[in-house]
## 1
Amino acid sequence: MRIINTHSHVNMLKERSIGEALQNCTDENVTVIVPSYDDKSIFEVDALVKKYPQIYGYVGVFPEEVKCFGDKTLSDMERIIKNNDRIIGIGEIGLDYYWDKSFIDLQKEVFIKQIDFANQMNLPINVHCREAYFDTLNILKEHNKNSKVIMHCYSGSLEFAKECIKEGFFISLGGVVTFKNAVKVKEVAQNIPLETLLLETDDPYLTPVPFRGKENQPSYVKYVAQEIASLRGISVEEVADVTTKNAKLIFPRII
Ligand code: NI
């Protein structure tokens, strides 16, 4: 059984080293894709990916960090992509109206620039969307031409997930699906077509049951797979196989 974890900040763990967390991934046959979040972490992710063979990376600027974004960021990202074939997507990018609504216009502008860039590079997009569902969907509908889209750590309604699926987007679920009170996310996990599903952890945040309250790590993605399997009444191997196939379709460079 192999799992591809499409979103892990393994470089942000505090309670265990990257080496230990990645050894756990090797032991559990988990492959990890690590997002960037600002104009400096793109270099950090590039270096990390070069150091550890079981990691792939995204370059991109997170919605709350868009004030650091400039033309140089795009040229840096382009150089990194051209020199490292295990940088396989743009992320995490998107809109977040939860933390700070004071620069929504700038968030939108930078999101659109990074979508255009992903299209030019012909790379998939890993989308962060918090309390900004319709703006995110509308911008993607209007601006995205050829990039595959992953809605990372999806926590919206089933109805909205269906809207995204209609556009050809993938729905990535994390540890929230294991929370007892996460009724909406469980409903999404049960009902979306398996061909649109991906797995992730978004560690160090959102630790799945049975480790809720402790620091998350990328190998815990198996608990996400197990919960989805039990919600759908299928085997965990099937969830792992289908989601790995989906991820390989999006990221053909993953070995
Ligand atoms: Ni994240």
## 2
Amino acid sequence: MFRKILIANRGEVALRILRACRELGIATVAVHSTADATAMHVRLADESVCIGPPPPTESYLNPVAILAAAEITGAEAIHPGYGFLAENADFAQMVIEHGFAFIGPDPAHLRIMGDKIQAKRRARELGLPVVPGTEDAVGSEEEALEAAERIGYPLLIKAVAGGGGRGMTVVQGPSQLREAMRLARREAKLGFGDERVYLERYLERPRHIEIQVLGDRHGHLVHLGERDCTLQRRHQKVVEEAPSLVLSPDERAEIGERVVSALARLGYHNAGTVEFLWQDGRFYFIEMNTRLQVEHPVTELVTGIDIVREQIRIAAGERLGFAQKDVRVSGHAIEVRVTAEDPRTLTPSPGRVTAYHPPGGPGVRVDSALYAGYTVPPHYDSLIAKLVVHDVDRAMAIRRLERALAEFVIDGTATNLPLLRALFANREIREGRFDTRWLGQFLQNWRG
Ligand code: ADP
């Protein structure tokens, strides 16, 4: 097992990893920008290294600074968390070439899944059902028009290098396609430095269902069931739960087995999530995330498996200590993402937190790096806390969540807590009747 791990991230996920390390008896190195000198992950780590100024490109996205920090402190492994460099194959390669362990899959797998077209092609070859669309990036507008005839409208133009819910344009009919293609390519070039786009059928009322997997370096893979992340705003997840209301035990077992056998053929190891859209009883692969996900605690609560601990053990070459038959999903878990933003205008609201009181009690978990007196810096993601609850079934989990949301106090900065509270009072949410567009529509009428 490793003696010391460098955590190449910040915020709640840096703390999450730090906690796993501490429980395994592993020393931790935090890295931070000058904006994060007083951050919780820096305070709790055994050692810390300042790696640059506030802009991410000069600190958390700077491989050289991070490797230098690992070198100086004598860390043996690097955990990238999520976001920043977590899915950067070049970074993972550099980590390995410099003699550190990368706590994640092979760089080759990061590379395949980081390119959305290659990922879809590979998924299809591996026997997974994918969303109908073009096999390659579409070059000309003529080519796009032709392909669109085959795929049918409405359709989506997607940036090959897109991510984080950005880089998607819905096209309703052929008269819009040329203009939309021009715009989408320009935006892709500006946003991701890669103008390539492809076309995909637009599913109109899907649910987002993803399968969590864990695999060791000895060819042993298991799935930990699904998470339902259908409640999204601008294609970004806001609420995640497990199990999904729409899957029967047989459907769950079947999609899980298909994912496991596909990833086994790929030779995948460490944690990963295969994301699908689900509509009318059918699954459609959209992408794979080759890292720890924000919403992983939902799965941890229903399975009792510590995913970050397993990631570290796997990277150290240990075997998974359990088989598929040992994985049991019990009760129901729901996670809500608390963000520092005005829930009406959705504008970020960084600032000083004057009072902080997280909820507690049975079945309540809060993953957050906040404390009273902390100033939320403007340079990073607006996620400031994840509230996750677990209870015997969905109805009780919702009551527990409402109770916990009522206890939660974050003063000094605007948060989306009022929105989260309003959400669970809604009948369609309580009854589980929603699709990926539901929250956007709800927000149009919600005045807080
Ligand atoms: P990103 O990498 O930006 O997160 P994803 O491919 O994972 O992009 O998609 C994010 C979300 O966008 C999905 O959960 C879904 O709500 C929506 N989406 C993506 N592809 C489609 C599609 N073909 N039809 C309808 N919605 C889609």
## 3
Amino acid sequence: MITGKYPSLRLRRSRKYDWSRKLVQENNLSSSDLIYPIFLIEGKNKRQPIKSMPGIYRYTIDKLGVIISKVIRHRIPMVALFPLTPNNKKDKYGNESLNENNLVCKAIRYIKKKFKNKIGIMCDVALDPYTTHGHDGLLKNNYVLNDKTVEILMKQSLLQAQMGCDVIAPSDMMDGRVGKIRKLLDKNYYHDVQILSYAVKYASHFYGPFRDAVGSKKSLKGDKKNYQMDFSNKDESLREVALDIKEGADMIMVKPGMPYLDIIQKVKENFKIPVIAYQVSGEYSLIKNGIKNKLISEDAIIESLISFKRAGATAIVSYFALDISNKL
Ligand code: PBG
């Protein structure tokens, strides 16, 4: 594919001036490519810093108006909600996930009432914010049960849809849950509620700060390797995606982000479906601390986000979304 040679061909020619670099730029980033995660906490009038994630806070419901207005002003199309459940509301079964007055349900109702459809709401479907053992499903002999867990996830999804959630995002990695959730939503006339499946979620070491943020870090027993994917695998990701598309997923998540750009590219090449990348908490904190310690410049944030676009991602869940959309 090389169409000439040095010295008549000089690739630096197009890099000489800013206008020229802009002209030949192959990918760019806009705030409509971003999804902003928001952590929730019980109580009133609180914006609580999260130690492991500098610059990120947990918000009480009454504080959501301010932050969501900002997100809308910055033209970010969707937020993802994550709750910090108080310990006394956690149990072995994650029952609090089915309480219509839990933090996530209250937040959905509040946001939809105040902002109508000016912003999309995405909610995780998984039990880890609600279980005492910190796993995404029901635990028996240190193994997460699949089918029994799916039954609860179905109810959790329906409840979120009833509250007004726009995009149901199962992040649990149980087999078969997308199809079952789709069926139950349709049966209850929620045909238009979308499913964003975390089809490709790796058992990653980059989730540390998030588990701290939702309070599952200390409680988590063992690891999540018997349901989340082995980070050595690539072909398996295509099998996961193929299954979830057949079961009715509208969009596919690949998670984590930067260490998995090869997977994003592979999925995008093989399936013509929106692929969302999740730049997870560990990635965020590493970059943020690098900037804080003046090891890297702030422009590393845009570089990291554009890399997802280059790989083929349609949108990116990122804790940088709000900060960075100012500069786009
Ligand atoms: C849990 C869930 C996790 C994240 C999103 N949903 C953590 C996990 O699987 O342990 C991680 C997000 C992040 O690290 O930013 N179902």
